[in-house]
Structure formats: structure tokens, C-alpha cells
Specification:
This protein is α/β, with parallel strands linked by helices. It has one domain (about 5-135, about 190-270): Rossmann fold (3-Layer(aba) Sandwich), CATH 3.40.50. It is about 40% helix and about 20% strand.
Length: about 270
């Protein structure tokens, strides 16, 4: 049975962090995408039947503070180190989707002892000539939805299409408080991913430092990040396994939660004595 995530807050050196958590078992640190998924994420609720799921909101997302002290991916990693210490999760399993996958890979390559097992879901973080990641900033929300979701009737995709249909004039008339969460999330993402765009030029050569057993999950219908990115992650990390989810788009974690939860569960529990 899915287990709803509960909201907590922890203090970090750069301010309070909003954390969603549930379940009992081996700890699982989940790092969200630029969508900022947390409470109500079905995949995490399913995983809470086997793990203690801990899903912090990155600074600038939700009610987490400190984005003014984050300038790049290095700052993001140091924030994750502080979070692991505060939450008692040093050496835990780490699962990340897209932007969160990039952060998870940075953490595992820089501080291998901090990551027991690793799952990267449609991860960003690499620059591959001839296979660029599509633009996410400043795009028509409806067009972006088509790159993020396989099913355009998915609630979030529908919302993005509705916003696009409103037009700039009507959008400008909306109360700022309604737009604030989206604008803050975009700002937070840009602090880490604007320049260089959604990658770290040094990451690829550092992936050989990852020691955690690694699973790379790729949605076959991901139109945002070309498949060679997932393939390159899997090839660069010793012993990594690449699994393709048929029909899964970029946000496969949201669209196919049971499939993703099943793959993550099997990988994290592999070899455990029950």
C-alpha cells in the first residue's frame, strides 16, 4: 500500500530545508527533478513500503531556503553533504531524477563513500557533441510538456498546456502568489544549470570514481535528453546497468511510478539478506 509522505523541516548551514519522508527500512535519499516532485509522488509512496524514503526539496523549491548561497553544482553538492550529515544519511542509497540525477552523480563521483547504491533516472549532467539537451528555460509550456510527458493528458502536462493557452496577457493578470512557486523553481534550477547549460564539463571523466552499484533508468520516449546520455552514464560507471522503460518519457518517475518503483526497489535490495 502506498504510504503518504510527511512534511518535516531541518536546519542546514544555509537555512531550513523542507523534507518529505515516510516508511521504515533502509534509507533512500531521493533528489528531485526541476519539477520539484515531493509530496504526492506515487513512486516515492510505493517505495516507502520497503525503505525509509527521505526527499528533501532543493533550495528555492517548496519552502527550502538558501538559494542565494547556491551559485553552481559544486555548491549544490556541498549542500547535499550537509543534508546527509543533518539527516544521518551518509552512506545511504541515493536516487535522482533528471536534475536530481545529475546531483546524485556529482555526489557519488566526488564522495564515493557517501553513496551506498545509486539510481540515475534520465539524468542530466553531461554535454555530448551532436546530442544536446533541449532547452527548458523560456520555452512555451505546452511545447515543453510534449518533451517531458508521453501522455499529454497527465495532470501536470494538462496544466502546462492550459498555461500556454492563456497567452502572455492573461498570464500577466494572474496573482503573483500563484506564479511564485514556478518562478522560484526556475530560478533555483538556473542557479545550477544555466551556464554551462545542464552539465558539468568535468563530470564525465569523474564518473570512473563512482563505486556504488549503479542502475541507470532511461525512458525510451524521453524527448528532452537524447538516449546517448543515459548510455554514456552507464558506460562510464564501472558495472552500471542500463534499463530502458518502454514508452517512458523524461518524467517517467511521475508517469510510470509503479514501474520505476519496482526497478529501484529491485536494485536497492539486490543481494540483501532478509
Amino acid at each position: 500500500m502506498p504510504t503518504p509522505l510527511n512534511e518535516t523541516f531541518v536546519a542546514t548551514p544555509i537555512g531550513k530545508t523542507q523534507v518529505w519522508r515516510a516508511g521504515v527500512g533502509p534509507p533512500l535519499l531521493y533528489l528531485h527533478s526541476a519539477t520539484g516532485e515531493g509530496a504526492g509522488t506515487a513512486a516515492l509512496e510505493e517505495l516507502a513500503d520497503s525503505f525509509e524514503v527521505v526527499a528533501p526539496m532543493f533550495p528555492g523549491f517548496g519552502e527550502s531556503e538558501g538559494i542565494d548561497q547556491i551559485d553552481d553544482i559544486e555548491d549544490a553538492v556541498y549542500h547535499l553533504l550537509d543534508l546527509q550529515d543533518v539527516l544521518g544519511l551518509a552512506g545511504s542509497a541515493v536516487v535522482g531524477t533528471s536534475l536530481g540525477g545529475w546531483m546524485a552523480a556529482e555526489l557519488a563521483s566526488r564522495y564515493p563513500e557517501r553513496v551506498h547504491r545509486l539510481v540515475l533516472i534520465n539524468p542530466a549532467g553531461l554535454h555530448i557533441a551532436g546530442a544536446p539537451i533541449k532547452e527548458i528555460f523560456g520555452r512555451n509550456p505546452g511545447e515543453l510538456a510534449e518533451d517531458l510527458f508521453a501522455d499529454q493528458s497527465f495532470p501536470l502536462a494538462q496544466t502546462m498546456h492550459m498555461v500556454a493557452a492563456m497567452g502572455e496577457d492573461k498570464l500577466a493578470e494572474m496573482p503573483f502568489e500563484l506564479l511564485r512557486p514556478t518562478l522560484q523553481s526556475l530560478q533555483a534550477t538556473a542557479k545550477v544549470a544555466w551556464n554551462p547549460y545542464l552539465h558539468n564539463p568535468k563530470l564525465l571523466r569523474r564518473l570512473s570514481r563512482v563505486t556504488a552499484p549503479t542502475l541507470v533508468i532511461h525512458g525510451s520516449a524521453d524527448l528532452l535528453i537524447p538516449p546517448v546520455h543515459a548510455q554514456t552514464f552507464a558506460a562510464a560507471i564501472a558495472g552500471a546497468r542500463l534499463v530502458e522503460v518502454p514508452g517512458g518519457a523524461h518524467l517517467v518517475t511521475l508517469e510510470q511510478p509503479s514501474v520505476v518503483a519496482g526497478l529501484v526497489r529491485a536494485h536497492l535490495l539486490e543481494g540483501r539478506v532478509t
